[in-house]
Design goal:
Elements (H helix, E strand, L loop, with lengths): L2 H8 L22 H15 L4 E7 L1 E2 L11 E2 L6 H19 L4 E9 L7 H13 L2 E12 L6 H9 L4 E7 L3 H7 L5 H14 L3 E8 L6 H14 L3 E6 L21 H17 L3 E3 L3 E3 L4 H7 L4 E3 L2 E3 L6 E4 L4 E3 L3 E5 L3 H9 L5 E6 L2 H16 L1 E3 L6 H12 L3 E4 L2 E4 L7 H6 L3 H5 L12
Parallel strand pairs: 1-4, 1-13, 2-3, 4-5, 5-6, 6-7, 7-8
Antiparallel strand pairs: 8-10, 9-10, 11-12, 14-15, 15-16, 17-19, 18-19
The structure holds S-adenosylmethionine.
Length: 448
Amino acid sequence: METTELLRKYNIAAPRYTSYPTVPYWNNQHFNEGQWKSRLLSAYAQHREEGISLYIHLPFCESLCTYCGCNTRITKNHGVELPYIEALLQEWKMYVALLGEQPKIKEIHLGGGTPTFFSATNLQQLLQSIAGAAQFDTEAACSFEGHPDNTTAEHLQTLYSLGFKRLSLGIQDFDPKVQYMINRYQTPAQVKHITELARKMGYQSINYDLIYGLPGQNMEGLTRTIDEVIGLKPDRIAFYSYAHVPWIKAGQRHFTEADIPQGNEKFALYQKGREMLVAAGYEEIGMDHFALPTDSLFIAYQQNKLHRNFMGYTDQHTQILLGLGVSSISDCGTAFAQNAKTVEEYKQYIKDGVLAVQKGHLLDAEDLSIRRHILSLMCQNSTCFETEVPAQVMQRLQPMIEDRLVAIRNREVKILPLGRSFLRNTCMAFDDRLWQQQPQTQLFSAAI
Ligand SMILES: C[S@@+](CC[C@H](N)C(=O)[O-])C[C@H]1O[C@@H](n2cnc3c(N)ncnc32)[C@H](O)[C@@H]1O
C-alpha cells in the first residue's frame, strides 16, 4: 500500500503510551493520597532490595520555546530556585519517612523545564541533600537535561562529580528559520563545545533531542541538521514527532497550522532522518529513538531489557519510580500518581505537610496485563499471549495485518518493518480503556 494511503488510514490522534492506562483515562475518582501511600508501601516491601528511581522536575525556563509540550514556568527571576529546592527536599523527606528507611537509589533523572536554569551550586545542594537521606548505588544511572544555551562547564563538572555520567541536550533543529519560529536558539558550535567538554570530563552517554514536523521545517534544513548531528556523534538520539496540542499548550498558537509540515511531508522528514542516521551507524530502537551499538540503550534493547516510562526509553528499570516536583508522575507498578501542575499549588501541598499527589490511577489485573503487552510492543516490537490473542484485539488488529504492519504467529503479535512507524496504532488495538470510552474531544496528538 502507498504511503499516502497508509497515512490516510493511520495518521489519527494516538497516545504516545508512556504509561498504560494513558493519563486522560486514569480513574481519578477512585484515587487518593492514602491509597497511593498504601500501594507504594506494599510495592516497596516487595522490591526494596532493587532500589528506586527518582525523577526530579525542574520547571523553570528563561524563555518560552513555543513548540514545547512540557510543564514549564517562564521566568528570568532566579530567586525562585532556592524556595523550589526547599519544597523538593521537604517532599523527599516525606517519602523517606513514609518508606521508614533511607532507600537505595538506582537512577536519577533531572528533567524540565530547564534543569540548567538552576545554578550549579544550587543543584549541588539539592542533590547532596537527597543523597544524604538515601543509600546511593555506586552504579546509579544519573542523567540530566541541559539547554545548550545555558549549560556551563561548572554545571557539567559539578554534576559529574556528583555521579552524573549522562547528559541530554535539547536541540530540536539547527535551521535558523525553524529556531526563529519556535523561539529557541542554539548553534552547532555551542553544542559541539558542550559535547566535547562533557566527553573530556568523562560523560559516558550524550543524547540529543531532535524533533521532526516543527513549524518552518523542510527537507533541506532537516538534512543539514542531521548532517551536523552525525558529525558530533552523540551516543543517543531521540527523534520525536512534533506533538501539536495547541488546545493544551497555548505557546503553540504562536505559529499557525499552515506553518507545520503534515501528512506525507512530515512523514518524509522522518524517513529522511531515519535513513541518514541508520546509514551513519545508528540503530533504531523502539519508537523515535536511535543509539550507537556501543550505547547502553542499544545493549539493553538487544538483551530485551529495555524499559519505557514517563521520560521515554531507559535501560534501567525499578518497580518504583518516585517523581518529585511540580507535575511529576510516580509509578509503583500497581498505581500512578501525578503531582499538582502549578508551582504555587505544589508548594502549598508540601507546606501543608502532605504529598502533592493530585491525581492518579490504581491499576487492576486487566490494566496490568495490557500494560505488559503495550510495554513489550514499545520496547521489543512484539508481545506474546499465554492463551489465544483475544478476539477483540484480533479484530482491531485486522486492518494492520492486511496492510502488513503487523503479523500474528501462534500467540505472538509482531511489528513488521513497515509497522514500526505506526507503533502507536498497534498499541491502540490493546487499549481497552480507550475503546470503552471513545474520546468526544481530541485528547492526543497525531500518530505520525
Ligand atoms: C522538557 S524538554 C527538555 C529540554 C531541555 N530542558 C532543554 O531546554 O534543552 C524534553 C524534550 O521533549 C521534547 N518535546 C517537547 N515538546 C515537544 C512537542 N510538542 N512535540 C515533540 N517533542 C517535544 C523535546 O525534544 C525536548 O527536548
